[in-house]
């Protein structure tokens, strides 16, 4: 049986001469975060803004240009520590936390930055900073590159997992069904899982703490026993 979709109230038309690039980008971010990249069209954006579609073209040439501007706006919001204020390892940790926070708070950033070529200086700047910190931490050029890719893979994968789990658990009764499934497991067939079920549920519930735990152990492994940087 199909699930009835919620009926949205019609949006009020925006007052004349109030449209500007900032308003368009704000609406685009809200639309992308709420409905996803698949639903992001110029028509949907115009409805979000309460304007005619052609009005948007007075400020942006096309959807790709808006997507690039959205990615740049979101990257501008990453909270990064002041360079040199912390030890390289601590600073690298804060950079990773900032990127992860961006992805989890704005799923649109995760979709845009992982599905489109990097166009903005900020995205390239974050990568450059991570590489520099890894080199300052003592990794060779080759190992620094490998470590940076590994960290980004962990950040993206963790954020994607957290976003999807959060959306799934938003459904009514979802958490109760998960707990009931664990409670119904046979201790004879799954002795370790059933004995650790409370700890597993706790780890899954606190996504931020889980990410930080994994990040700290990942950094510990990547930076263990490094020698001086190679020329």
Automatic annotation (TrEMBL):
Keyword field: DNA-binding, Transcription, Transcription regulation
Stored PROSITE patterns: HTH_TETR_2 (PS50977)
Domain of life where this protein originates: Bacteria
Coiled-coil segments on the chain, per record: none
Pfam families: TetR_C_1, TetR_N
GO biological process per UniProt: negative regulation of DNA-templated transcription
HTH tetR-type domain ranges (all copies): 18-78
Residue ranges: DNA binding: 41-60
A GO molecular function held by the record: transcription cis-regulatory region binding
Official protein name in the record: Transcriptional regulator, TetR family
Lineage start: Bacteria, Bacillati, Actinomycetota, Actinomycetes, Kitasatosporales
